[in-house]
Automatic annotation (TrEMBL):
Residues 216-374 form the Glycosyl transferase family domain. It holds the Pfam family Glycos_transf_1. SUPFAM superfamilies: UDP-Glycosyltransferase/glycogen phosphorylase. It comes from the Bacteria. This is Glycoside hydrolase. GO terms for molecular function: glycosyltransferase activity; hydrolase activity. Keywords: Hydrolase.
Length: 395
């Protein structure tokens, strides 16, 4: 198949799962055309992201005049389809927290995407996230383009399902993908019952070949690593509070990532006097992520809201026990007491207790947990297997 991936901002450092899925589909013989509305505003430090950027066409970079010309060409070609799609765009704008004008811009983007898909011979469009990329794919389809599907990750889509018109987008889609059974259950809340059979579960995947024999647990003081954007939902501020409550003064935390809360996180670290126990390297490439996991005794994900974090899969594939919260699809992967520890979201005392349990556990127990997690992650989240599922739904 020749598939267009319709994306909002791509590539981004936090969206490596999309890149892996694309590469897996290409390895299976499919031709992937990448088209994003805009490039990332963040610096791309990973060479793989930089290579993806060079392969991606960015719609808004074409300029308003180019989009306007595409709109008028589509209008002249099929006025009935154009005005039908325009009505849907206006209805979406009325339901959303943004304006009708913004959704008319999505319509212009869809006209450009339609022309590019026709020129490239695209047979199917797939979007990630139920936000504007899914809207553009839907409108391009209603204008006469190929069928489309989209993957919903959460939690943002679940925070505003009506504003995003998820039901409408799912109704017009050939199918919709959830990344966990929990995610599918939430989509069923907003889809018409007759559309439920077209809501599929396809997990995000990891590349098993990148996770050879895991490094043995390091010697010395216990170390944990956490990876993610520095935003409220990831819970890093609570994690700092929990670290301050732990019993082991040598337990060290590395926070990989960056974002708008960096200043607040640094202030919270200073407030607790934890400067010597917390490292903040910023965004790093995949090789550095693997080296940080190898240097750690465990991985911690204190999120308040999630879909199903890729970094948990990667930590488990690296045979590291995981501390995570009982939210969204995470309990479908992490097994409390077997592959790590599960704690209630937002509970600093429970999180501190899990960190203490990890710090006090024997190397043998941590190794056994890590091995069980590795088996589970590789069995459930092989990107080649999941990409093949996605392709079968597209067919």
């Amino acid at each position: 198949m020749k598939i267009a991936y319709i994306l909002n901002t791509y590539p981004q450092p936090s969206h490596s799962f999309i890149r892996r899925e694309i590469h897996a589909l290409e390895a299976q013989g499919h031709d992937i055309y990448r088209i994003a509305m805009r490039p990332s505003a963040a610096a791309l430090v990973d060479p793989l992201d930089q290579a993806e950027d060079a392969k991606t066409e960015h719609v808004l970079a074409q300029g308003a005049a180019q989009l306007g010309r595409a709109l008028f060409r589509v209008l002249r070609s099929d006025a009935a389809a154009f005005f039908s799609a325009a009505k849907v765009a206006l209805d979406l704008g009325a339901a959303s927290e943004s304006s009708r004008t913004r959704h008319l811009i999505y319509l212009a983007e869809a006209c450009y995407v339609l022309e590019r898909c026709n020129a490239e011979g695209i047979t199917h469009m797939h979007a990630h996230f139920g936000t504007n990329a899914a809207a553009v794919a839907m409108l391009a389809h209603l204008l006469g383009g190929p069928e489309y599907s989209f993957t919903v990750h959460g939690p943002e889509e679940f925070d505003a399902p009506r504003a995003l018109s998820l039901g409408t987008k799912m109704h017009h889609a050939a199918f919709t993908v959830a990344i966990s059974n929990f995610g599918r259950s939430q989509l069923c809340r907003w889809a018409a019952a007759e559309d439920w059979d077209r809501i599929k579960v396809v997990h995000c995947g990891i590349e098993p070949a990148r996770f050879g024999d895991p490094a043995p647990l390091p010697k010395g003081p216990r170390r944990v690593v956490s990876i993610g954007r520095f935003v409220e939902q990831k819970g890093q501020l609570l994690l700092i509070d929990a670290l301050a409550k732990t019993e082991d003064p040598d337990l060290h935390l590395t926070l990989l990532g960056d974002g708008e809360l960096r200043g607040m996180i640094e202030a919270r670290i200073a407030q607790h006097g934890l400067q010597s126990r917390v490292s903040l390297p910023g965004w790093v490439d995949e090789a550095r992520v693997r080296s940080e996991l190898a240097a750690a005794h465990g991985f911690v994900m204190p999120s308040f809201a999630e879909g199903l974090p890729m970094v948990i899969m990667e930590a488990m594939a690296a045979a590291r026990p995981v501390i995570a919260t009982y939210i969204a699809g995470t309990p479908e992967l992490v097994q409390d007491g077997k592959t790590g520890w599960m704690v209630p979201a937002g509970d600093a005392d429970a999180l501190a207790g899990a960190l203490d349990d990890l710090a006090q556990a024997t190397p043998q127990k941590l190794t056994k947990m890590g091995e069980a997690g590795r088996v589970r992650a590789l069995a459930r989240h092989d990107v080649a297997v999941e990409a093949a599922k996605l392709a079968s739904h597209m067919r």
